[in-house]
Amino acid sequence: MKNAALGLQHLLAMYAGAILVPLIVGDALGLTSAQLTYLVAIDILMCGVATILQVLRNRFFGIGLPVVLGCTFTAVGPMIAIGSSYGVTAIYGAILVSGLFVIAVSGIFGKLVKLFPPVVTGSVVTIIGITLIPVAINNMGGGQGASDFGSLVNISLSFGTLLFIIILYRFAKGFMKSIAILVGLIIGTLAAGMMGLVDFQAVREASYLHLPHPFYFGTPTFEWSAILTMTLVAIVSLVESTGVYFALGDITDRKLKGKDLANGYRAEGLAILMGGFFNAFPYTAFSQNVGLMQMTGVKKKSIIVITGVMLITLGFIPKIAALTTIIPTPVLGGAMIAMFGMVISQGIKMLGPVIMKSSENAMIVACSVGMGLGVTVVPELFAKFPESIQILTSNGIVAGSVTAIVLNILFHMLPQRKTNEHISLREQEV
């Protein structure tokens, strides 16, 4: 019973992050209640499968650490952009290819990591967070195109939810603080229910049991720009997961080797691949569960296996998934401000030390974030370029990411740059 309670605690800590991704993406793409219920259910189920793949180590995959996997927020903006431009099937075609890419490079990714130092990954995370904020603001008003957009009721619900989350985060301690977003969503939905703004039809219509449906949204389609975007997202997720792996290795007193990391990356690639197959999402290691582990001192893998089994069980029950789809759009928008703001703050946290380190890093951040935000706001800037070039320029996240990678190579990896640095150091010594 104690182990089950500890497993449930881990589930609650990651639940808001898990369900928000399908809710946000599904709402942005105009999915029906039935489609949204499937999306949430399959996402929860696949979070459990991905977690167990990672925890139960074997010679081919799984890092064997008490790590919880969930859908990455890094993918939200790109998936909405891809779905809006090419349709839902293009999202899953891109996810499938990115999963295969991760599996293919898992053995050598440790060597590729130098292409993605904190100045690059921090810039990408910051760009993604910034491009998500308009989605949150639109939802706070009631959803883009809503007849009551910006009404006093919508504004009250969205800001009330955000205020409750802030207050809880400020004054709560321990586990309650770690689930502030989840509690905020529940309280906001209850308040909306008292106003008669919650529709339970989706819950009534949802079945009690269902099985995963391969390619639920149709046969995947493949677009180069979508594939490139999701591959970049997968790379950023791997870099983030690497930090989680080392943090957990430190907590569990286990020194990680290259093969351990390769197995972890391979498990993550398999999870992404399965997500594409069942129309779920890309997955990454969740840092909030690492914080919970540090807080409780409980670091047994068996607890995380229980969490994974709980997630899989919940994923087979659409009634429970449908409960999440009744959250009113303004309530969701209020919580999204906090969640997406945390994505931006995580990017800034990654960038802070590297900007102080050198003026070159500051230039990389300035150009990549500026390019990413600029192309997002004014996507028609490169409309007259050949289509082959527009693959890199039509999406703000891709444009910003490529800018960061190229400038990092220019400033920090070209032989001439290194030579100049050595000369400068010798002159200082003299």
From TrEMBL:
Keyword tags: Cell membrane, Membrane, Transmembrane, Transmembrane helix, Transport
PROSITE patterns: XANTH_URACIL_PERMASE (PS01116)
Gene Ontology MF: a single term: xanthine transmembrane transporter activity
Annotated GO CC locations: plasma membrane
Signal peptide limits: none
Record's bilayer topology term: Multi-pass membrane protein
Pfam families assigned to the protein according to its UniProt record, in alphabetical order: Xan_ur_permease (PF00860)
Keyword flag Mitochondrion: no
Membrane-spanning residues: 12-30, 36-56, 63-84, 90-109, 116-137, 149-172, 179-204, 224-248, 303-326, 332-351, 363-383, 389-411
Keyword Ligase: no
Subcellular location as annotated: Cell membrane
Domain of life: Bacteria
InterPro entries cross-referenced by the UniProt entry: NCS2, UacT-like, Xan_ur_permease
PANTHER family recorded: PURINE PERMEASE C1399.01C-RELATED, URIC ACID TRANSPORTER UACT
Similarity comment: Belongs to the nucleobase:cation symporter-2 (NCS2) (TC 2.A.40) family.
Protein name per Swiss-Prot or TrEMBL: Xanthine permease
